[in-house]
Design a protein that fits this description.
Distance between the termini: 24 Å
Number of helices: 5
Number of strands: 0
Order of helices and strands: HHHHH
Shape: elongated
Radius of gyration: 16 Å
Strand content: under 5%
């Protein structure tokens, strides 16, 4: 949830993908487009970056959030820290439809925290 760490993460991901695409012989225009999308995949930005960001959040909620809620103590986290993480990720979702979809897993993760 640290904005500096997330910025570094986005930059590293974009750089890794740029290098991969160059090695695969992709055209520069395509490489720059993919790099642009990945460079803000945590928070979004323009319409396309928001779509990618929402997809990233949906993946988190579908595949990770409930598991994290079940194991937060094992990771040395408090219930409040885990709830804060879930809220942080949920509130980054841009589209209403994506938020509706994620809300199922979000509520399930919150229930796990209460167990």
């Amino acid at each position: 949830m640290d904005s500096e760490k997330l910025r570094k993460h986005q930059d590293l991901c974009a750089s890794i993908m740029e290098e991969f695409l160059k090695n695969e012989g992709a055209e520069d225009q395509f490489i720059q487009r993919v790099k642009h999308l990945i460079s803000n995949h945590e928070y979004g930005g323009d319409k396309d970056q928001n779509i990618l960001s929402d997809a990233d959040r949906l993946t988190y909620f579908e595949n990770v959030a409930v598991r994290h809620a079940k194991t937060y103590k094992d990771k040395g986290k408090t219930k409040e820290e885990m709830k804060s993480k879930l809220d942080f990720e949920f509130n980054k979702i841009h589209s209403t439809k994506a938020k509706e979809t994620a809300s199922i897993w979000y509520r399930e993760a919150l229930r796990e925290l209460d167990n």
